[in-house]
Amino acid sequence: MSKVLFIIGTGTDIGKTYVSGLIVKKLRESGSRAGYYKAAVSGNERRADKSLIPGDALFVKEVSGIDQPLEEMCPYVYEAAVSPHLASRIEGNPVRLEVVLEGFRKACSRYEYVTLEGSGGILCPICFDEKEIWLPDVIKACGAGCLLVADAGLGTINSVGLTAFYMKEKGIPLKGIIFNHFKPGDVMQEDNRNMCEHLTGARVIACVQEGDTELDISAEDLKKLYDTELR
Fold it and tell me: Which of 3, 25, 26, 38 is flagged as catalytic?
């Protein structure tokens, strides 16, 4: 039975994909069969044949070295660099939760550990016209707990706290926090770490510095964050 973990961020461009790549790499290198899945990704480039490249999935695949087919990693790929709900409106391809879950279940049937990545922050709208779908709807449908990626710098206490409080209201488990752009010895960032742990009750399980190619947590400790996928 596969195990799943959802990677969310305090906002857009916070480093979710970068961290996801390091996580999947750590799992693969530990000998586990690791896979990646993202419901919807926006702001993608086109190949010569005009087909869209799921950029986040490609990055994770290249960083982690997994052999998962790119076309199985993300069912909804958009060109417009906007929220998925708006991109789908512009491009006429709305996200359907049943399609997302079909691909998710397929990934779970093939991989021991499936790392899911969200779009934007916790309040990202995934679809709004045909049916109202928000990121928490996808997380809960997948039965996954979350790992929160946050910038280590100024303002993170507020953004981490608000995200954690909203997750608690929605009944979504927060398994831990990862600080990105971390500078060891920086007094403010060290204090941010302590304050975020105090505020949320969740541990900062790793800190990622600029250019890191490894995650500073053991594979065994990382695996403990994953939930058994519900059949």
Answer: 38
The CATH number covering residue 223 comes to: 3.40.50.300
Whether 91 and 83 have beta carbons less than 8 Å apart is answered as: no
Q: Which domain holds residue 131?
A: 3-228
Q: Which tens digit of pLDDT belongs to each residue from 24-55?
A: 999 999 999 999 999 999 999 999 999 999 99
38: annotated active-site residue: yes
Q: Which two tokens stand for residue 51?
A: 């087909």
The CA-atom distances, in angstroms, between 89 and each of 74, 78, 94, 118, 149 are 18, 10, 7, 19, 28
* pLDDT, tens digit, 9 for 90 and up, residues 108-123: 999 999 999 999 999 9
pTM: 0.96
